[in-house]
Specification:
Layout lengths: L28 H8 L4 H14 L10 E7 L5 H13 L4 E8 L2 H12 L6 H17 L13 E5 L4 H10 L6 E5 L14 H7 L14 E5 L6 E6 L7 E4 L1 H20 L14 E5 L5 H9 L3 E4 L4 H8 L4 E5 L5 E5 L1 H17 L4 H15 L7 H15 L3 H5 L7 E6 L8 E3 L4 E4 L3 H9 L6 E6 L6 E6 L3 H19 L6
Parallel strand pairs: 1-2, 3-4, 3-5, 8-9, 8-10
Antiparallel strand pairs: 5-6, 6-7, 10-11, 12-16, 13-14, 15-16
Helix pairs in contact: 5-12, 5-13, 8-9, 8-12, 8-13, 11-12, 15-16
Bound molecules: 2-acetamido-2-deoxy-1-O-phosphono-alpha-D-glucopyranose and magnesium ion.
The site of magnesium ion (MG) has 6 residues, from loops.
Catalytic activity: N-acetyl-alpha-D-glucosamine 1-phosphate = N-acetyl-D-glucosamine 6-phosphate
Cofactor: Mg(2+)
Pfam families: AMG1_II, AMG1_III, PGM_PMM_I, PGM_PMM_IV
C-alpha cells in the first residue's frame, strides 16, 4: 500500500500487509528496514539473497506469488506504483495486481479475503460492510427512534481517499444521511488543516466546519482512512470541539459487546453447556486517557496495555475471543476468534429452531453482524464509522450522550529533540523509563505534585524525537507537568548534556 497516511501530501511511503491481511510480521521488520536502507543495488540483491536463504523461501516455480498493490490519492503514488510493479516483476514467478486507489484498510481486507478464498473485489468490500450494517440496524429495538438532528452525520474526509470511498458506500446505506466534506474534490490539500490526526492533536475543527454545525454529529478520517475520530462543534467558540476520540470509540464498542454477551447469558433454558464463557479483552496504550481506563475497568472489563503501535495492540487483542483495541488517535478494531465465531454460528442455528426471534438470538445475530462489519484485518475508519452509527442508533444516543460516558482528564503531549532517542529504554508498556538511570525517579517527583497526575516519556517510533505525555485533573496542571517532564528529558538527553 503506497501511502504516508496522515502526513503531508508531499511525503509518501509504504505499508505492507501480510498474507493474513494483517500487518507485516514483526520478525520481518528488520529485513524491511535493511532493504529500504541498502546503499547500492548489489547490496540490495545480496540482502534479498541472504534473507531468502534464511527464511527458506523457495523459487522453484511450485508456488507463484501474487502481490496486490494499492495507493492513496497522493500524486507521487502513480510513479511509485510503477516502481513497485517493476520490483515485483523482477522476482521469478511473482505477479502484481494494481487494485487502484484505495484506503489502506481496503487493501488489507482484500488480501485477507483473497487468501481465505472469499470474494475480494472493492465491490465485495462495500457489499459486506453495507449488508452487515443494514443487518445490525434491522436488529435495533423498535422503540428506539432517533430525533431529526441525530439522523445526520457530517464527515471530514481529510481531502484524501476516505471521503471518495464514503461517497460510494453511503449510496448503499438507505437509512442514513451522510454529508462528506473535504473529499479532496473541493480543492483542499490532503491533511492540511483537516483529518483525524489534526482534529485529535489540535482539538480544533477542521476546515469546512463552522458554528452552524453546532450539535451535529461530525467525524474525521485520516489521509488513508485507517483512523477515525468523532467531534462536535462547541457553541461558545466555532473553533472549539468536543472531541470523541479512539478511547471513546473503544468504550462505546466495549459497552455494546458486553451488553450483547450478557443478553446471551440470560438463558431461558437450563442447558449449561451452551453457556460458552467468551473471553472479552480491551487493549489500550499508555496514551489512553486515564478516565477511559477507569470507565472500562468500572464496567468490569479486562483492560491490558501494550507499547504504542497498532501491531502490538492487534497482537494482544488476537489472544481473546473478542479483543477490542484502539489507540487514542482513532486507530483500532475488534477481533473475533474463529472458535467463538463457530460457537455463535452453532448457537444461531440452534436458537433458530428452538426460539426464533428471541432476545438471545438477536444478540447472537448482532455479534455476527459486528464480526462481518468490522474489519478483522486492520483498523478501518469506514467500517468503524458504520459500527459507531449502528450502535448509536441501537442505543438511541446523540453524540452528546456518547461523549458523556466519561469526562476526559486534561492532557498535554510535547516533543523533545534529543541527541539519541534510542538512549531511552522503557518497560511496562512504556510507562516506566529504565535508562538513562535516575530520570524515572525525577519524573515521579514531578508527577507527585499534581492531583491525578500521570506522565511518561518514550522515544517515537516514527519521528526523531522523545514524546512527553502528561495528564492531570486540570489543564494548567497537565501543561505544567508536561513542561517539567520535557525539561527533565532535555536535561538528561538533550544537546546541552551531550558534551
Ligand atoms: C502518540 C502517537 O499518536 N503515536 C503514534 C505514532 O507513533 P510514534 O511512535 O509515537 O511516533 O504513529 C504511529 C503510526 O501511525 C501510531 O500508531 C502512534 O499512535
Ligand atoms: Mg493512517
Amino acid at each position: 500500500m503506497i501511502t504516508a497516511s496522515h502526513n503531508k501530501v508531499n511525503d509518501n511511503g509504504v505499508k505492507i500487509a501480510d498474507p493474513s491481511g494483517g500487518m507485516l510480521t514483526q520478525e520481518w521488520e528488520p529485513f524491511a528496514d535493511a532493504i529500504a536502507n541498502s546503499p547500492t543495488p548489489q547490496h540490495l540483491v545480496q540482502l534479498i539473497d541472504e534473507f531468502v536463504k534464511k527464511e527458506n523461501i523457495r523459487f522453484d516455480g511450485a508456488r507463484s506469488a501474487e502481490i496486490l498493490l494499492g495507493r492513496d490519492t497522493r500524486p507521487s503514488g502513480e510513479s511509485l506504483l510503477e516502481a513497485a510493479k517493476q520490483g515485483v516483476y523482477s522476482i521469478v514467478g511473482a505477479t502484481a495486481t494494481d487494485m487502484g486507489i484505495l484506503t489502506t484498510p481496503q487493501l488489507h481486507w482484500m488480501v485477507r479475503a483473497r487468501n481465505k478464498g472469499m470474494k475480494a473485489t472493492e465491490l465485495d468490500y462495500f457489499e459486506q460492510l453495507s449488508s452487515s450494517f443494514r443487518c445490525l440496524v434491522d436488529l435495533t429495538p423498535n422503540q428506539i427512534k432517533m430525533n431529526k438532528t441525530d439522523d445526520k452525520l457530517v464527515v471530514d474526509g481529510a481531502n484524501g481517499v476516505g471521503g471518495e470511498k464514503l461517497e460510494v458506500l453511503k449510496k448503499m446505506l438507505n437509512s442514513m444521511v451522510i454529508e462528506v466534506r473535504n473529499s479532496g474534490k473541493e480543492g483542499g490539500v490532503l491533511n492540511e488543516g483537516v483529518g483525524a490526526d489534526y482534529v485529535q492533536k489540535e482539538k480544533v475543527v477542521p476546515q469546512g466546519f463552522y458554528l452552524k454545525d453546532v450539535g451535529i454529529r461530525c467525524a474525521s478520517l485520516d489521509g488513508d482512512a485507517d483512523r477515525l475520530v468523532y467531534f462536535s462543534v462547541q457553541s461558545n467558540n466555532a473553533s472549539n470541539i468536543d472531541l470523541v476520540d479512539g478511547d471513546k470509540i473503544l468504550s462505546l464498542f466495549a459497552l455494546f459487546i458486553k451488553e450483547q454477551l450478557s443478553i446471551l447469558k440470560m438463558e431461558g433454558d437450563d442447558h449449561v453447556d451452551e453457556n460458552y464463557e467468551a473471553r472479552l479483552g480491551v487493549v489500550q496504550t499508555a496514551y489512553a486517557n486515564g478516565a477511559s481506563t477507569d470507565y472500562l475497568k468500572q464496567l468490569g472489563l479486562e483492560v491490558v496495555f501494550t507499547p504504542t503501535g497498532v501491531k502490538y495492540l492487534h497482537e494482544k487483542a488476537a489472544e481473546y475471543d473478542i479483543g477490542i483495541y484502539f489507540e487514542a488517535n482513532g486507530h483500532g478494531t475488534i477481533l473475533f476468534s474463529e472458535v467463538f465465531l463457530s460457537w455463535l454460528d452453532a448457537r444461531n442455528n440452534e436458537l433458530s429452531s428452538k426460539s426464533k426471534g428471541s432476545e438471545q438470538q438477536k444478540a447472537v445475530l448482532r455479534l455476527l453482524a459486528v464480526s462481518n462489519l468490522i474489519n478483522q484485518a486492520v483498523g478501518d475508519a469506514l467500517s468503524g464509522l458504520l459500527l459507531v452509527e449502528a450502535i448509536l442508533q441501537y442505543k438511541g444516543w446523540s453524540i452528546h450522550n456518547w461523549s458523556e460516558l466519561y469526562h476526559d482528564l486534561p492532557s498535554r503531549q510535547l516533543k523533545v529533540k534529543v541527541v539519541d532517542r534510542t538512549a531511552v529504554v522503557t518497560a511496562n508498556a512504556e510507562t516506566v523509563v529504565l535508562r538513562p538511570p535516575l530520570i524515572q525517579e525525577a519524573i515521579n517527583v514531578e508527577v507527585a505534585k499534581y492531583p491525578r497526575g500521570r506522565s511518561f516519556i518514550r522515544p517515537s517510533g516514527t519521528e526523531d524525537v522523545i514524546r512527553v505525555y502528561a495528564e492531570a485533573s486540570i489543564q494548567e496542571a497537565a501543561d505544567s507537568l508536561a513542561n517539567s517532564v520535557a525539561k527533565l528529558a532535555d536535561q538528561f538527553l538533550g544537546f546541552g548534556n551531550s558534551g
